[in-house]
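HUMAN: Mind making up another protein with tokenized structure?

ASSISTANT:
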Amino acid sequence: GRALVAGETYHLRVSEEAKDVMGCPIATAHRITFEATEADLASPSTTDWELSAPRIGTRAPLIVLLDGPLDHLSLAYRLRVIGPDGVPIPGRITLQAAETRWQFTPNAPWRDATYQLAIDPQLEDLAGNRPGVLFDQPIGTPHKPWTPQLVWSPKPPD
């Protein structure tokens, strides 16, 4: 079964004799107390994401509303906007609403073309679940189907 029980309080203790990644003693003992919550048994579902396409000829952001909070660093590095030529579009990523809203502002205006939002399969939610795969799923368990890219086009100008 699972190592932690929801609602129970646990203490994580690290001895001052423990060593860091470089082999040096950490010198000070640490203790963290936490309460376990229910296990997150849902992997991110790209089919539930909502894309709000910007208008052609603008630098307005592409906005993606996610199906739940995802890992901050994972969101910053594992989603990319790919242009019609198959090359990633340069721009700025902004994360909002507790990592449930991903926003991409391009460096140049959107063209009248088809774009892709490419999703790296290593993208993770806060529990380490990935699209189609749970964090603690036994090895060899089949993955659920998911969409590794979402195809979209900017809206026509007003």
Summary: The chain has one helix and nine strands. The first strand starts at residue 9 and ends at 14. The mean pLDDT is 93.
